[in-house]
Design goal:
Strands 5, 6, 7, 8 and 9 form a five-stranded antiparallel beta sheet that branches. A four-stranded antiparallel beta sheet has the order 1-2-3-4, with no helix packed on it. Strands 10-11-14-15 form a four-stranded antiparallel beta sheet, with no helix packed on it. The longest helix is centred in the middle third of the chain and has 6 residues. It contains one helix and 21 strands. It is mostly beta strands.
Length: 262
C-alpha cells in the first residue's frame, strides 16, 4: 500500500456527497507497468505496478478535494471527470498525456458555470472507436451556446476536449425539475451491424440508443431509439436506471444490451 500526504486542507468537512478523499478508480498502463491515480488533493501520480515506486508526479490535474471518477487510459492519455461541486470544482472532463515526458495537461472541458451538470457515472467517460469521448451529465442548465450541457449526452474531441456533438431529451425541463438526471447511468459504446452506437439512461428509467457519430441527428434531440423501462412514478431515487449499461456478443453474433434497474 502507499499513503499520500497532502499539504492542502479541504475547505469543508467531508460528507457522503463530498468525502474529501481518493475517489477515482485507478487505471493500469499495461505496456509500462504503471498504475495511474489521483490523490485527494488533486495531484496525479504514476506508480510502478509491482513495487509502488514513484514513476510520475505529483502533477496538479484537478482541483483539490474535487470528486473525480474512474480514470480511463487511451492512446497515452488519461481521462477523468468531476461532479457535485466538491472542492468548489466545476463539472467537466480532464485529461493528461502520460506518454509525454513533461506530462502536460492537455485541457479541461468545463460544462457548467457552477457545481451542477456533473459527470458522476462511476465508470468515468467512455471512449468510442471513432476516438470521441462520451459522457452523460447531471441536472443543470442546458444552454449549449453558453457551454452549459445539463442532462445531456456529450461527445468530446480527444485532442482538445471541445464538445463536437450532444443529445438532450425533448423533456429536458421535466427531467431537470424532478431530479432525474441522466448521469445516474453511464454511457456504453458498442458496434452493431454497420453502426457504432452509444447507450445511456438515467433516473427517469428511459433507455436511449444514439448514433455515435450523430448523437441527436439534425436537431440534437432525436435518438435512434427510446424505451421507458422503469420509474413510472418519477421518483428521484430507488427507481430508474442506476449504474452503467454493458454489452455482450454471443456465439451466434447477436448483440445484447444489459441495463441495471434500481
Amino acid at each position: 500500500h502507499r499513503t499520500f500526504e497532502s499539504f492542502t486542507l479541504p475547505k469543508n468537512p467531508g460528507m457522503w456527497l463530498c468525502p474529501n478523499n481518493l475517489d477515482a478508480t485507478p487505471t493500469v498502463d499495461k505496456d509500462r507497468d504503471v498504475l495511474y491515480l489521483i490523490a485527494s488533493d488533486g495531484l496525479f501520480y504514476g506508480l510502478n505496478l509491482g513495487t509502488g515506486a514513484m514513476k510520475a508526479g505529483p502533477i496538479p490535474l484537478v482541483p483539490p478535494y474535487s470528486k473525480n471518477w474512474s480514470l480511463n487510459l487511451w492512446k497515452g492519455i488519461v481521462y477523468t471527470s468531476t461532479s457535485q461541486g466538491c472542492g468548489m470544482a466545476r463539472a467537466g472532463v480532464y485529461s493528461i498525456d502520460v506518454h509525454n515526458p513533461s506530462h502536460p495537461v492537455i485541457d479541461d472541458l468545463l460544462i457548467s458555470k457552477g457545481g451542477s451538470g456533473g459527470i458522476w457515472d462511476r465508470t468515468g467517460v467512455t471512449i468510442g472507436k471513432n476516438g470521441r469521448i462520451y459522457a452523460s451529465t447531471a441536472d443543470g442548465i442546458f444552454n449549449p451556446t453558453d457551454g452549459e450541457y445539463g442532462n445531456s449526452v456529450i461527445a468530446v474531441r480527444p485532442e482538445s476536449l471541445g464538445v463536437v456533438d450532444y443529445y438532450s431529451p425533448l423533456n429536458y425541463s421535466e427531467i431537470n425539475s424532478y431530479d432525474l438526471d441522466m448521469a445516474a447511468s453511464g454511457v456504453v459504446w458498442f458496434p452493431y451491424r454497420n453502426h457504432d452506437l452509444v447507450a445511456t439512461g438515467g433516473k427517469e428509467g428511459v433507455l436511449y440508443l444514439l448514433d455515435a457519430d450523430s448523437l441527436g441527428t439534425h436537431d440534437h434531440q432525436t435518438p435512434l431509439y427510446r424505451q421507458k423501462l422503469a420509474n413510472d412514478a418519477l421518483h428521484f431515487e430507488q427507481d430508474g436506471i442506476w449504474g452503467a449499461p454493458s454489452t455482450w456478443r454471443d456465439l451466434r453474433g447477436n448483440t445484447w444490451l444489459y441495463v441495471p434497474i434500481w
